[in-house]
Every structure is written in structure tokens, then in C-alpha cells.
């Protein structure tokens, strides 16, 4: 029987893996006859997991009923199931910075701290700390990172070379370069970024952090501190003085489109957007794009580095050991390697340090992302339950600044509203 089992495993789709590792889920097919349900959002990480799932089922004997949804459908489905106290799904994908605090407050998430330290082969310390910060609340680990994002600087290499400019390393240099390269008459604007009230907040975050500010300090709103105002003022000035017309209406799709068409010299946004910029059918500058660290402010270079998607276990699951076996496999070095080779930026340091793990990314992009992960801040938006409401409050400061209103007055007013929101959530 042992010889037969070995032959089956050896003939699996992943014969090149060391399935004899006693720490792997393959050891002994421990979950034969059991099943779990998994909900996933549409993403590159989910695609990798689905493609390799038959191998996991063969190794463990566990049957996985994996269902995929759009982001909106996933949120709605989870809300219904978890509110009802259903034991299904056992495992689900979560957007930590949007949903973690609500799900944790409602008791829907199984803490994973005891699981991640059981098996030395899992090597939990291999995950970048800032990515883990995104999936931790109240000192409890509530999900494991599947994919990450960092704020980076995109720039036109050709325009910088023609002007004899060095790549900006500070926010002062960024603004000076935007001023120098701003040439609307030729159809090129100095800078582009998100300008929609809600959408801009995540990209505003790195400007605040790099000046020493943040949205809040524990339970105190902090968007009217001198550091925060300095960061917001810079963002407003860049958009207002060197941005394209209609910046008020720009989310990431519109801002990325402007840059991809070659109509902006500088662009700050999430690292994951690079494929849209390079591979866009409308891109006129695919071979002219440069990548750089988010520039340093008075507090240094402090870009966000967040977990965009995490994998969580339901507290109501009746099959927690089986659920953890799936999570352990789906977030293992091997799976992260496969996922990253398909263009999904993972959170494991070892994979980023492996030439195979970075083979799918532009060479200049790799050190920018890895350094951003090393120094990054683990959140890119207010850390509250009602994230959307908080983003509207904070984004309005930028809108007021773009309209020529007093930024300090707008920040003071918004800080009162944001504090009220924080206090209301604490009292519930």
C-alpha cells in the first residue's frame, strides 16, 4: 500500500516537488473522507490555487469545494453566511484593510497565531512584517497574506534623459521634476495620480507617512497635524499645478490611462498596476517606463506595503484542522512561488530573493518592490470599520484644496468628523 501511494504521488502533476517532506500535507492523507468549502475572489492568487487544487486533494484526501466570486459578490455572500452563523465557508479570501476590523468585531475570524507556529517548515517568519501588520488586529493574526501592493513611483525614462534629470529621491525633487517636465502645450503633464475623493485616500497615505503623519494615532484622529497637512498640501499642489484637466474624476483606471498614453511624466500608484501600464493596448510608452521608490519626505521614504488579499478561517468552521491544512498549503513557499511567477506579488521574502520567483517582473521593478516591503507601512487607509465613510471625510480635504479652499481649515473640520466616527465605533 505504501508503494502504491508513493507511485500515485510520484505521478502527480507536481512530481518535481518534494512531497516526501514529512511537514507537508501529503504525509499520511490525514483528511480522507472530509471536505471543506472555500470562497475566493477573482485574482491571480486564486487562479493559481485553483489550478493546483487537484494535487492538494490527492495528497491530503481532503475534498475542497472552491467557489469563485467577483469582489462585490464575495463580500455580499460572506456577509450573509457569516451573519447567519453558518459553518460554511470554512476558509475565505478577505480584503484585510476593508473588512478585517468589521469581521473581527463580529467574531467571524478564527485567530491563526497558534497554527502558524506549529510547523517549522511553514516558516511564518518568511513573510514580510508590514504585510502581516495588515492582517493583524488587536494583537491577533486573523488571515495570511496572499497578495501585496506597495506605492511606487512610475516615471518616463525618455523625458528624464532628455531633460538631464536624475530620478527623484525626495518629495522636493519629485515636485521640482514635475515642474520642469510639465509641458501641457506638448500634451505632457508633470504629474498624475488619483483625484477622486474616495479613491485618492490610499495614494495620499504614503505622502502623509513620509512626512511623519498618519490618519490616526491609535484612537485619535490625526489628519490635522502639521505632518499630515504637509503631506496633503504636497499632494494637492502636485495635482493642482502639474496634473491634467479633469483630475477630480480620476480613479486608478483613469490616472493609469493618462500615464500609459504618455501624457504624464510622473505617476504614483500601486505597484500591481504596472501590468496595466505596460500591457495596455493603448500604451505608447511600454519600453520607456521607469520604476523607483516612493520619494522621501521629512520622515524618510515611507510607502504603504499592504496585503491586498488574505486567506482567513471562519470561527464557525467545524473543520478547523482541515481548513488550516488548506491555508497552510495555499500560502506555502511553493504556492507563493507559482503564484508570483504568474505576476501576483506575494509576501514571502524567500520567493522575492529567488531568481525564479521574480522572473515574471521587469528587472528594475524588483528592487523597488522588495525595498518597499522592507520599509513599508502596513496600512494605506484609515483603520476603522466604516472605511468608506472615513475615506470620504479625508478625501474631501484634498478636494477642498484643489478648489482653492484653506487646507488647514478643511483638515480641522474633517478631523472633528473623523474623530466622531472613531468614537461612535468604539461605543458600539
TrEMBL record:
Q: Which InterPro entries match?
A: Bact_solute-bd_prot1 (IPR050490), SBP (IPR006059)
Cite the CDD domains for this sequence: PBP2_TMBP_like
**What PANTHER family would the database entry show?**
ARABINOSE-BINDING PROTEIN-RELATED, DIACETYLCHITOBIOSE BINDING PROTEIN DASA
Q: What is this protein called?
A: Extracellular solute-binding protein
| Organism this protein belongs to | Paenibacillus validus
Amino acid at each position: 500500500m505504501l508503494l502504491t501511494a508513493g507511485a500515485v504521488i510520484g505521478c502527480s502533476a507536481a512530481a518535481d516537488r518534494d512531497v516526501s517532506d514529512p511537514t507537508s500535507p501529503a504525509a499520511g492523507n490525514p483528511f480522507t473522507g472530509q471536505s471543506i468549502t472555500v470562497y475566493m475572489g477573482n485574482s491571480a492568487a486564486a487562479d493559481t490555487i485553483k489550478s493546483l487544487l487537484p494535487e492538494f486533494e490527492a495528497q491530503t484526501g481532503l475534498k475542497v469545494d472552491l467557489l469563485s466570486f467577483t469582489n462585490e459578490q464575495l463580500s455580499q455572500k460572506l456577509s450573509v453566511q457569516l451573519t447567519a452563523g453558518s459553518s460554511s465557508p470554512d476558509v475565505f479570501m478577505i480584503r484585510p484593510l476593508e473588512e478585517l476590523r468589521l469581521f473581527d468585531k463580529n467574531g467571524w475570524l478564527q485567530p491563526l497565531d497558534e497554527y502558524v507556529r506549529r510547523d517549522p517548515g511553514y516558516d511564518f517568519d518568511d513573510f514580510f512584517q508590514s504585510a502581516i501588520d495588515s492582517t493583524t488586529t488587536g494583537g491577533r493574526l486573523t488571515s495570511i497574506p496572499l497578495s501585496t501592493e506597495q506605492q511606487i513611483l512610475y516615471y518616463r525614462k525618455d523625458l528624464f534623459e532628455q531633460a538631464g534629470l536624475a530620478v527623484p529621491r525626495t518629495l522636493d525633487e519629485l515636485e521640482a521634476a514635475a515642474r520642469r517636465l510639465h509641458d501641457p502645450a506638448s500634451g505632457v503633464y508633470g504629474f498624475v495620480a488619483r483625484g477622486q475623493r474616495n479613491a485618492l485616500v490610499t495614494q495620499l497615505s504614503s505622502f502623509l507617512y513620509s512626512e511623519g503623519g498618519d490618519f490616526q494615532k491609535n484612537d485619535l484622529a490625526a489628519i490635522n497635524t502639521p505632518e499630515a497637512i504637509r503631506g496633503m498640501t504636497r499632494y494637492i499642489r502636485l495635482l493642482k499645478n502639474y496634473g491634467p484637466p479633469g483630475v477630480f474624476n480620476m480613479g486608478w483606471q483613469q490616472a493609469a490611462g493618462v500615464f500609459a498614453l504618455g501624457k504624464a511624466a510622473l505617476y504614483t500608484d500601486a505597484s500591481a498596476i504596472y501590468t496595466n501600464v505596460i500591457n495596455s493596448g493603448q500604451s505608447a510608452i511600454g519600453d520607456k517606463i521607469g520604476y523607483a521608490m516612493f520619494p522621501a519626505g521629512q520622515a524618510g521614504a515611507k510607502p504603504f506595503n499592504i496585503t491586498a488579499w488574505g486567506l482567513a478561517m471562519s470561527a464557525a468552521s467545524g473543520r478547523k484542522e482541515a481548513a488550516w491544512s488548506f491555508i497552510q498549503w495555499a500560502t506555502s513557499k511553493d504556492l507563493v512561488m507559482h503564484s508570483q511567477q504568474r505576476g501576483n506579488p506575494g509576501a514571502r521574502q524567500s520567493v522575492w530573493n529567488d531568481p525564479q520567483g521574480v522572473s515574471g517582473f521587469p528587472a528594475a521593478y524588483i528592487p523597488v518592490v522588495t525595498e518597499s516591503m522592507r520599509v513599508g507601512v502596513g496600512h494605506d487607509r484609515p483603520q476603522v470599520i466604516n472605511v468608506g465613510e472615513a475615506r470620504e471625510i479625508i478625501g474631501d480635504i484634498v478636494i477642498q484644496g484643489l478648489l482653492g479652499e484653506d487646507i488647514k481649515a478643511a483638515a480641522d473640520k474633517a478631523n472633528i468628523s473623523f474623530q466622531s466616527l472613531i468614537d461612535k465605533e468604539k461605543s458600539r
